[in-house]
Amino acid sequence: MKNPGRVFLVGAGPGDPDLLTVKAVRILNQADVVVYDRLVSTEIRKLIPETTRLIPVGKAPNCHPVPQHEINRILIHEALQGHTVARLKGGDPFVFGRGAEEALDLACAGLSVEVVPGISAAQGCSATTGVPLTHRGLASGVRFVTGHSREGRPLELDWDGLADPDTTLVIYMGTTNIKNISAQLIASGLSRRTPVLAINNGTTPSERRLKTDLNSIAENLDREQFSGPVLFIIGRVVNLLGSLNDHRRRTPFVQPSTPQVDIYV
Q1: Would you call 95 helix, strand, or coil by DSSP?
Q2: Could you tell me the domains of the chain?
Q3: DSSP 3-state helix, strand, coil percentages of the chain (rounded to 5)?
Q4: Radius of gyration (Cα) for the chain, nearest Å?
Q5: pLDDT tens digits, 207-259
Q6: How far apart are CA 257 and CA 248, in angstroms?
Q7: Which positions are annotated as active-site residues?
Q8: What is the pLDDT of residues 146-198, one digit of tens each?
Q9: What is the mean predicted confidence (pLDDT) over 54-62?
Q10: Cα angle at 15 between 13 and 18, to 5 degrees?
Q11: Which residues pair with residue 210 across a beta bridge?
């Protein structure tokens, strides 16, 4: 009987392959099998040795060709065959990545699992846009929430708690529900003029940015027809967009790491 292999839940970061951790690259080079998500970029997959077996298990909105229980089964099966398995997930496995669900199933099967953290989409988009998630005098805290509910259920969030002008609100997977989200925040007391930054395909060469306000975000986002993942940053820190770029223009040897398109409305 083969000794069971190990499973590594590896964060692929927000898209830019340069933002992979050293440990993530090492694990990808050692793995026998890589089970990867839809948002893992082609550039990152090219870093995986050609001899490694790749298993795509990506999900898209309202399209889950490989349901979560089947992903868990694949991980357990491959590890029981004695393979070293890298479960490659966009961003960080424990930030809206269902990594804990996979880790629990693996542990219940008696398998060794290790989490390799990745740079989250919020961190990556904050860095590329120059918009900090916290800033003295503008935001004393930051909250991450999902804008997507399971199986089409109503989105139930602590709207009163989220409508805090002193806190930066970061919304993952919120494109479909952004109209409802903005209406709920306004109804709970957050100013309709609160600035909002939508970042599409953050940290990649196709990154696009839309700066608007809470009252207009749904209408303007619909007009732009972004394709791919969108992250929303809501709060006064968004007004700092462009400040870092202004400094870069005064400092020629500092250049943006990726091209981008800025849209102001």
Answers
A1: coil
A2: 6-116 (3.40.1010.10), 121-264 (3.30.950.10)
A3: 30, 25, 45
A4: 20
A5: 999 999 999 999 999 999 899 999 999 999 999 998 866 544 443 333 334 44
A6: 12
A7: 37, 59, 173
A8: 998 776 678 889 999 999 999 999 999 999 999 999 999 999 999 999 999 99
A9: 77
A10: 75
A11: 198, 263
